[in-house]
């Protein structure tokens, strides 16, 4: 990944195209205001947005048609007309509500965390696929209009369609993507420290186990939030480096300033943008790159010394959703998302190359899911019998098929083989995958719990302390203590009984 990023940086010094691409689709040219002669042409950052004769596609604007015009918002690499409501936020709320209710009833169990992460991975890979620089069919785009919900930042509400923007769009998205993550990490750190104190002050083994289990649930919540926000945060961090001086001059018309590629009417030389780039560099190194690598190393270390089951209560939040050697799948999926972002959002590589690389990794992952069944089993017990269907791995298989199918669309359309039936098939597949997730989530009460999950993730109810027996005089038989008249009477009665 680092090699790829360095390779993209070396592409930066390339120069602008000559006027040989004048009046071609995918290019925009600058003309001399006096003579009207062509000065130079630039390859558009979103090639399908640039039409012939320096015109832009419907819904796009800007020097190279890189921004969406009023009344439109960006979904992937396409500008879409604003919907009647922020369906992304509605969709996100419809998912969070049952998750919160189930958590309040039974706690944030391994089963709930696994299902939430599975749905998040599925929707985010669909969204990352739409970032491929390709003129996506409008039928597919309309069916996925709820995907802004997994941005987990201001874009979830599509403020450019319904509200006035208080600041530049990129600044708002960058801030709302990182700030909640920082707040959650800080709160979890404080709460985790409080739980650690309670463990150290526990009076017996039962209380220690209760507090450890609750501490594990807290860490599980933090890990789930980190996994869900990793992709949108990484996207904003990487886009912060999409500047003319960082990458390339062949996709901008104005070479007099350090132009921001996602909005060429603004510059990266502004002080707020410089601050964002400095913070983005720190976050990129410490979080986007190092955190998955550290997780990968730590889980492999536990696997090598056969400590996965023994440390499930303390470190299970890193790998408890997976089985066997697939305990390293979580950091692997994070790195796969980062690679996809680098391919599609940083430098305008050819769409077929973007599609081919993403499809290769998606195909490999599909084979891993089908042959290896990496997720912890989730089987239902119905009428006393355990059904053979594994819900977790069945959903993941269908989700991986949907992602591969979507990534095949650009290749099929490039070969002039695309028709509406392909789009309809994709819509049916994605709808079935989401319906299966709803059924899987609703049937959690029927799941057969794994032995490790019962032992390590369900907090025990501490045994009630026995009430102290009634005070009797010989309990106070200590040096220096006097006896009351009541105690003397009780002693005499006790002596006369012998």
Please give a handful of descriptors for the protein shown.
10 strands, disordered N terminus, two-stranded antiparallel sheet, 498 residues, 54% helix, mainly alpha
Describe this structure in words.
The protein has 498 residues and is mostly helical. Helices cover 54% and strands 7% of the residues. The chain has 15 helices and ten strands. The strands form five sheets. It has a two-stranded antiparallel ribbon with strand order 1-2. A hairpin with a 2-residue loop joins strand 9 (381-382) and strand 10 (385-386).
List the helices and strands and how they pair.
Blueprint: H1 2-10, E1 27-31, E2 38-43, E3 60-61, E4 67-68, E5 72-75, E6 78-81, H2 87-106, H3 110-130, H4 138-143, H5 159-162, H6 169-200, H7 205-239, E7 259-260, E8 263-267, H8 271-304, H9 312-315, H10 329-346, H11 351-372, E9 381-382, E10 385-386, H12 391-414, H13 420-442, H14 451-456, H15 485-496
Antiparallel strand pairs: 1-2, 3-4, 5-6, 7-8, 9-10
Helix pairs in contact: 3-7, 3-10, 3-12, 6-7, 7-8, 7-10, 8-10, 10-11, 11-12, 12-13
